[in-house]
Amino acid sequence: MGKWRIIWLALFLLGAGAASVSAQSPLMFPPQTPSEYPPPGYSPYPSPGYPPPGYPGMGGYPNTMTNYPPVPWGAPIPGAPDPRIEMEKLDKQNKSPNPLIIPDGPNAFPDQESCIKDQGCYVNIGGMALMRNCLNGGGVVFQEPASARPGTSTFPNTVQPTALDYNDVHLNFNWGVRAAIGYRYDNAAVELSGYYIFGATSTATVSDKDSLFLPFGRYPPPLGISGGGNNTNVWLRVDQASILDNVSLANLEANYRVTVSQGAEILMGLRFLRLNEALSIVSNQDGLTVLNPPDTRFIDTYLVTTQTNIIGPQIGFELETPIAPWLVVGLASKALAGVNFYSVDIDVFRGDGFTALNNRRTSTTISGAVELGAYIDFLPLERMRVRAGYELLWLFNVPDAVNEVSYDISTNPFGSRQDHGNILFSGPFFEFSFLF
Fold this sequence. Notes:
- The structure is a single chain.
- By secondary structure, this protein is mainly beta.
- The chain folds into 3 domains: 1-26; 31-96, no CATH class; 119-435, Lipocalin.
- It is 8% helix and 49% strand.
- The protein is built from 2 helices and 12 strands, in the order H-H-E-E-E-E-E-E-E-E-E-E-E-E.
- The protein has helices spanning 2-23, 83-95, and strands spanning 119-132, 139-143, 162-165, 174-185, 188-213, 238-261, 264-284, 299-324, 327-350, 355-381, 384-398, 421-435.
- It has a 10-stranded antiparallel beta barrel.
- Strand 4 (174-185) and strand 5 form a beta hairpin.
């Protein structure tokens, strides 16, 4: 019995020693400093700073290696991509340009790798057409009463049928050119733009031998304007009469544009707008009577020429939204209010060059303009945009040539002085934009 007691005692002492050694194992009590971590090459285990792929939302791999200490914050996991390198790659991908994505910028152009970041120049060039709204006003040429033919005509005292009025003038589209140059940076741009609409004449004519008269015939004509035959008033017993209207427009503006949200920008700047209009009322008393050669002494023209020059600040906005990777629709509007330096000229002259009246007056007032347009952008290339649209341009508190007509020339040699008209223009436009 003594021998077995000694053996059991020895086994007990050996087991206690092994337990003591196991209690001191670093696998049970993790080291307290990074220098004490096991060397690289161990299997993946949880990392609080990096959720590995395949486990969205988790803090690390499933902790099956319970006998290993935690990985330092943000340390790379063996067998998995380095998080810092992956984030750098992702950041570069987000900054690379995609020509099929409309950027949040002032000119709908993506940043190009060849340009300075968030900077670049752009040029727009195209054409446009504008048509004036109908000429407001009543009759200009009337039928002579039957009692006036044949014989000496006097101005009738009763209402007569209208042979020609201002609305008979079929106004045409006047074509012109438009262009812009700008520099963009970050989410803003500075831009210089303008257009010019060439003058084109719209006309309407009526003919009826010795059967027409004009309201000018009610009043004494200017010195040197007289009729032929038995009619001393050149505006009675007329063979032919015409109304002609010629309009031209010029526009120059400098704007600062800034993007305020995705697909929306505002602009503010300075604008100069010029409108020239010439309205002629031509009477040919013997146009169907004396043909070869015509008697130019009895071809008389009453001409009103107005010039509007508005300069002042303007504000506006543009809204656009992509409906396809290559197609964008938009809406733009601008409002101008400024000082109008305008002039009105009244001229009366004969076909042979004799001028009976040549008066000009100038004045200053506050006028304005409102512009509204809708457009479609096509994006065929990385550095190119094609835009087509339609716009309205409304000018208010400006001299309107029709309103300046006064049939009593001797009393109103400078026109009617009604300088507070409104004129509306509308028409299509197109332009090509290039990014440099």
